[in-house]
Amino acid sequence: MSDKLNIMMTGVTGYIGGTVLKHFMNHPEFPSFNITALVRSPEKAEKLKKLGVNAVVGSHTDDKVTSDLAAENDVVIAMADADSLEAAQAILKGLKRRYEKTKKVPILIHTSGTGVLADNAEGKSATETIYDDSNPEQIESLPDTQLHRNVDLEILRADKEGYVKAHIILPSTIWGLGTGVLVDQGIQNRLSIQVPQLIRASLARGRAGMVGDGKNIWPDVNIDDVAELYVVLFNAIRKGDNHACGHGREGFYFGENGEHTLYEVGKAIGDAMVQLGLSNNAEPTTFTKEEIDKYLEGSTYLGSNSRCRGRRSRAIGWKPTKTKEDFLASVKGELEAVKGFKMLV
């Protein structure tokens, strides 16, 4: 009879999930973990098995596959899609079965995002509203209609019912290229979303761009720093210090280590384009409506404000090291990667 801790992960072929799995594979207790990843690709599943990770082929939105797998695990770390209500419900269904069978409350670590805080500034202004992850009343003031909020609330309801202990990690603008064996073997996507989207739009128009005046503010965090937050949270949960490591309404954990304006990112892209001979002017200009429709899917989301402080995250021992200055300095490398990178699927 195995005494290993059973852990289910979704999203390990993605940018966040793959990096989190890499950090768990480097965990000193990795041999005592029985990690099972739910992936769509049979080829990637076989590669994961050779790395010591179990793999089940299927979609996280398949109710039966996902709920059955969740029911077999003590811990679920969901990193596939912050906005898939179907996937969240399937995981919760399985964890409820797990609780009813074992009478032990399973753990859910769900990935949301600080997009839940976003406003509609359209790059015209900064906000002075700063959310604190150690202030549940402030987070509860968010409208139910905010991005990611419907899934977060579903998870909070399950925690309140008592059959799961739910913890929600909310990364901000994640930066840095994914690295490690999962990237090297073609299992994991190595690029984030927000900065590469801006880079692609800027390359297509021949000049760095921004939404509005780029005055809006977002937090940022390095990919390995935020992956370490998952590990720190996991370790804190296992220690059983419920005061330091809250769950449910007191289980929000922001991943941030600095703030930037959209203009600063646009300028960093512009500087890199000039250095690489891709533009003759480093100053970012405002995207036209036509460019927003063409390159940003018609959305001014990148012109929104999302400000927060990860005090609860730091209270459990998380110590991010990369700063905004590191972020802006990394943009040139991301631009070079975007130009020569074929997205993994």
Automatic annotation (TrEMBL):
A single Gene Ontology CC term: cytoplasm
Pfam families linked to this entry: NmrA
Domain NmrA-like: 6-85
GO MF annotations, alphabetized: aldehyde dehydrogenase (NAD+) activity
Highest rank taxon of the organism: Eukaryota
Annotated signal sequence range: none
Protein name: NmrA-like domain-containing protein
Source organism (scientific name): Gymnopilus dilepis
